[in-house]
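haha ok so turns out i had the wrong file open the whole time. this is the CORRECT one, sorry everyone. sequence first:
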Amino acid sequence: MSEIIKVGMADAKVSHNPAVLVTIGLGSCVGIALYDPGAKVGGLAHIMLPSSKRASNGDINPMKYADTGIELTIKKMIELNAMKRRITAKIAGGAHMFACARENSSFLKIGDNNVAAVKEKLAQEGIKLLAEDTGSNYGRTVELHTIDGKYVIKTIAKGIKVI
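then structure:
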């Protein structure tokens, strides 16, 4: 039986097989599933914002941001014997959760900004993005299965999808 490991907002967890890493409530946030099929090590990060460079008031939670959250998740996976060259990624979230007259506001495009930042950081790290379920206007709950790297996306509006 697989252990269920909950990943909170602005958090990341890593685990060997058998485990299922779960995060709920992805709106504009992005759930980044990283997986090494050789070691059967998975990591799931729930990031809220694109860049730690915009942090204010001494906010030092690196898991909140795409740039630092991805870096630290990869580091934790390597500590569990994952090999960076084998790690691949799948992402979900980045929804448009705020409808407003000022649709050109960058604040309202936080989901798009998060997805773009995640993709940019994955490319910088040399991590191949295998699949994504991003955008639209609904929330998601995701599960990363460490036995096979399956990424299950659950929604109220669209049912269940596996990528």
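Residues 3-162 form a domain with the 60s Ribosomal Protein L30; Chain: A; fold (CATH 3.30.1330.200).
again sry for the mixup
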